[in-house]
Amino acid sequence: MKLRIAIAVIAVASLAGCQPAEAPAPEAQADAAGLTRLPVSLNAAMVGMVDHSADYLFALGNGDLPRNDNDWHLVTSSAYEMMLGGAVIQVPGSGQFDREWTANPEWQTLARDLTTIGAQALALSESKSTDVDEWRKVGDRLIQNCLACHAKFKPEIPSDGVLRGSTERQSRGISIFGY
Questions:
Q1: Could you tell me the residue range of the domain that residue 74 belongs to?
Q2: Does some domain include residue 46?
Q3: Rounded to an integer, what distance in angstroms lies between the CA atom of residue 137 and that of residue 143?
Q4: Which of 72, 85, 130, 165 has the greatest CB tally within 10 Å of its CB?
């Protein structure tokens, strides 16, 4: 009997040691990784991540809904990219104004809000929501975030010579999902 109790105690203690440790705060993770500067400008990060991802999120709010699992994967990936974009732009890059922008508390707030908007899109995407009004609300929050940030930090477009691609497809009503 004592042997069974001893084995049970050892088993419980062993399992307790298998519990995952709490993840360090994002700031601690960035510091631990030594990420103090991005290899590209914040403008390039925005065009490469946020602008591209926004297209997929806006599409659903305009009624251009995914038609298969691959399309939903594109939307989910875009939501993740939006979340990551908000985190990435909190770290200065190689652009002329990047250190100044990231040192500003309002920039940091807008960047965190961008991550929150991405999380809202992720929740809709993971549930494969076809509620155009809910997607439009996410898109509207994204537009307000972008407008507030550009009004404060980047009223002249483009800066650092970084441009995004054409939106002709959108103006012609052609699906982003390639059909």
A1: 40-171
A2: yes
A3: 10
A4: 85
Residue 132 domain-assigned (yes or no): yes
* Packed helices 52-61 and 105-126: angle between N→C axes, nearest 10 degrees: 50
Q: What is the 3-state secondary structure (H, E, C) of the chain?
A: CHHHHHHHHHHHHHHHCCCCCCCCCHHHHHHHHCCCCCCCCHHHHHHHHHHHHHHHHHHHHCCCCCCCHHHHHHHHHHHHHHHHHHHHCCCCCCCCCHHHHHHCHHHHHHHHHHHHHHHHHHHHHHCCCCCHHHHHHHHHHHHHHHHHHHHHHCCCCCCCCCCCCCCHHHHCCCCCCCC
Task: Please state whether the predicted TM-score (pTM) of the whole model is above 0.85.
Answer: no
**pLDDT one-digit tens code per residue, 118-167:** 999 999 999 999 999 999 999 999 999 999 999 999 887 655 555 555 55
C-alpha closest to that of 114 among 68, 156, 158, 145 = 145
pLDDT value for 17: 46
Q: Which whole number is the average pLDDT over 42-65?
A: 92
User: What is the CATH classification number for the domain harbouring 152?
Assistant: 1.20.120
Q: What is the pLDDT of residue 66?
A: 97
